[in-house]
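Hi, here's the filled form for the chain we discussed.

Project: internal
Contact: R.S.
Residues: 218
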Amino acid sequence: MAQHVAGSQKVVEGAAPGLVHNEQRVEHGLQGGPATHAGMVPEPGSGGMVGSVAGPSGQAPHGMAAHEQAIPAETAVPVISAEERERQLAAEEMRLRAKEEKLTKHADAYVEKKQRDAQAHVQHEIAKADKNAEKAISKAAHKEATVHKKVEQKLAQAEQDRKKAEIDAEHRAAEKKAEAQQEAEEMIAAAKEKAEAIKRGDEVPEKPSAIKKIFGMA
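And the returned structure, exactly as it came back:
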């Protein structure tokens, strides 16, 4: 085993830098772990390794070179410090907070606009209703005034007709009274004249019934 370890050390000294890690894995296998030398491949069913290792010239055999080409090269992963990570998280939090504030402002502005529109609509409807009410009141007042005026006109006309009827009745009564008075005066004058004629003997007195007839008493 010591000879194998020495041979392995020669391989490490003469091999390319990419094979050093593999030789360390071989050494780990000699210390009790599984041997995974790059130049060896597991033999089917045996559990052992077959193949050759690098020669004294330091050049890896053909099988080892092919195996090294199959292993992907290790890529360098950037290491982020805790401070950088905290800074990135704080920046992301600030970005999300700014976005949230912007959306909140937009939402508040939208709600305010809707409230203003609704209030303006309500005020417009109230003004419209007030205007219609004023029109209705004005129309009713005009109609009432017209009716009242017509009633007053009818009352005035009736009063005029009453006064005219009274005047006409007074005139008719006066005319009848004048006619009756004139007729009475004429009858009295005729009776006096007849009485004078009787006194003179020019006429014969008539019967009382005739006298009553003259005076309309019969």
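Let me know if anything looks off before we file it.
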